[in-house]
């Protein structure tokens, strides 16, 4: 890092070492210790980097933005200045090239750590947050970045979250925010809902208590309504191809068909109910040898035979404790239970068994699939385990393929695919032609239809937390109807609380603010209760780049002319960990704001750059027992407190798989390799 | 920024910072001078005089071109390498013209704004360099190509020299007088006139008496 001439993050030892070096050797290579503060003061006093509100818009503009940080208690880490230095160099260059430059900084300051700290210590998150912000700001200033500090914003300020709430109301108005019962990670022992990151292998990260999936009323945002636009508009963006690809995969558009299967009970009698499945491979319809429904499928209880009921109920219970990721990616072996019911495959009139298995997610497609073991790897695995027939219907061209050994998932020529019962014959066609023919037949015979499907789910937009934006909705007591509060009443300020521990019932902490929760519906005058869920941390970061253009505007989210001039962000720099969610959520909100005329561009960020990560330096640590004797790292005793000592690389040599002291090869060393963003 | 390509992962290493610190110190001492025995640096700068030579301008403009391109392409580390090359070259020069130093300081400023501001003020400027126009590379000095220049002495082609296309008359003449073949004709002679068409020809007319002497 060239810009700042001393390392940003130093251990206490290094700092001491440096200080003593400097005392011994007063001759510095050049007097950076005088120069840096001098010019930082000059810039601050002269407001050198102030971008005024009124500017000469005839000049070209350059908006260069960092992903604003979460002000953690630990202060800056080396990953921060890496990105910030890059944007700063660009900002300084562009100023000198005659551009009006917008280069702001702010704080994404709502979030879990401050709340957890509050639970542990009783310190109000507002205080912790303010303290951390002050530290971040002074650290950034000491690095001499050329931010326009007059534009500083924090997502936790009511003047800011007023507009976050305002956007929520616009979403609500357009039917893009709705309520639904959605399973959450519920930990009965802690009496709280946990974020996915707080659940590890089915137990809570803190305390190791069991976590189950429990349906709760949640706010959802209908990002799926924008799936096509979010996908199409990626093409024109100057973003890393890898990030675009991740977004495409996350949206996961596929073309296929929905098929209806009639239910057949244990006695072979056809029922009125139908199971609808989604498939991306309608061409393989003759190869479907069983159906799978997800454990949370709504029809499941009505398609279980009495003999299988106990087993199915047990299976559902076990599956409810697993996360989606565990079910689809991590779990090595597929599991499932036969329901006792069958489905009639209309293409060939055959009855095939219906299974319940957790490798199918209730949230994907219709929550049910037709399983084609010959042509799908997961189905193949499953059918081998449970001895379900495998029937090959696509043959790779010019190759003899054994469907028993593994699935053939590619395209090819159709075989074994005709039936006199249905009159459908697709033998000899290519997979593509066959798919079209099958869809045609489905639609003609009312057995299904063409369907585009997305992996993208609606966005769960409620958290059972205190330290977030209140959701500006009230519920009238007698009807329970949710009513948005009038825009004129925004911001709906977060009420003061002294105690932040979970309620134990799953009710959010805000429900403890009794006098705040109780309110009156301004229209009907009837008593009502406020929504006690808060918004997720993603909310504030979805639109902050707009506020920087006009941070103090009390009438509008952003002034139209200012937005027209500064949009879009020309260069946006941050870590690759935000490649999917943050960027996707921000693009979604931006498109909604575009539709309601608040912004003038379809996309918020013209160019996105991911900085690389900084890996920890190789270090060697020796241990000394309380008496000061060196102890080999492989024989340290967890009950004794050792002092640690950093060993210089030249005093270390390799011995076998470990590293030892050159002077004393009996002492092996630790090699912790830290990694930072 | 010097740790490696911006988009790549890199290993934290304080020696990288030392390298950059050394570079900035070299910039500092080139322009401000060496410290006195007590470690203090004098005010102002070293003597910055002379007119920039073609070589200096080429070196500078190559650096401008590279640094601008590398910043805009977010290849910050190679932009630094270019400035290091420039400073290495500058240490070999006898004279350090002020205009060259000023341009370089502006070039350095996006990367090392503190040092750059300090040097800028020592160069006699009273306001920040933050809004000074960023140097632009002059394409004339970026041409790598050299030409074979015929050299005539009194109208007769006596040999050729290899020169850069933008070479000045003085530089071309210097090269000619150093050339093994041509120097025989020029050594100790007084020159009446030089005719120089850049990229085409250098014609040297000698004083008449010298020719006579030569003929004898």
Automatic annotation (TrEMBL), chain A:
Keywords tagged on the record: Aminoacyl-tRNA synthetase, ATP-binding, Ligase, Nucleotide-binding, Protein biosynthesis
UniProt keyword Isomerase present: no
Gene Ontology CC, one term: cytoplasm
Ranges for domain Leucyl-tRNA synthetase editing: 248-442
Residue ranges of domain Aminoacyl-tRNA synthetase class Ia in the record: 451-615
GO molecular function annotation: ATP binding; leucine-tRNA ligase activity
Enzyme class: ligase
PROSITE patterns found in the cross-reference section: AA_TRNA_LIGASE_I
Domain Methionyl/Leucyl tRNA synthetase stretches: 67-199
EC code(s) of this entry: 6.1.1.4
InterPro entries hit by this protein: aa-tRNA-synth_I_CS, aa-tRNA-synth_Ia, Leu-tRNA-ligase, Leu_tRNA-synth_edit, Methionyl/Leucyl_tRNA_Synth, Rossmann-like_a/b/a_fold, Val/Leu/Ile-tRNA-synth_edit
Catalytic activity: tRNA(Leu) + L-leucine + ATP = L-leucyl-tRNA(Leu) + AMP + diphosphate
GO BP terms, alphabetized: post-embryonic development; reproductive structure development; translation
Family: Belongs to the class-I aminoacyl-tRNA synthetase family.
Name of the protein described by the UniProt record: leucine--tRNA ligase
Organism: Abeliophyllum distichum
Taxon lineage: Eukaryota, Viridiplantae, Streptophyta, Embryophyta, Tracheophyta
From TrEMBL, chain B:
InterPro entries: Leu-tRNA-ligase, M/V/L/I-tRNA-synth_anticd-bd, tRNAsynth_Ia_anticodon-bd
GO biological-process terms attached to the record: translation
Sections of the chain in a coiled coil: none
Keywords (A to Z) from UniProt: Aminoacyl-tRNA synthetase, ATP-binding, Ligase, Nucleotide-binding, Protein biosynthesis
Catalytically driven reaction(s): tRNA(Leu) + L-leucine + ATP = L-leucyl-tRNA(Leu) + AMP + diphosphate
Catalytic EC class: ligase
Superkingdom of this protein's organism: Eukaryota
EC number: 6.1.1.4
Gene Ontology molecular functions: ATP binding; leucine-tRNA ligase activity
Record-annotated Methionyl/Valyl/Leucyl/Isoleucyl-tRNA synthetase anticodon-binding domain positions: 57-164
Family label: Belongs to the class-I aminoacyl-tRNA synthetase family.
Full protein name: leucine--tRNA ligase
Protein species of origin: Abeliophyllum distichum
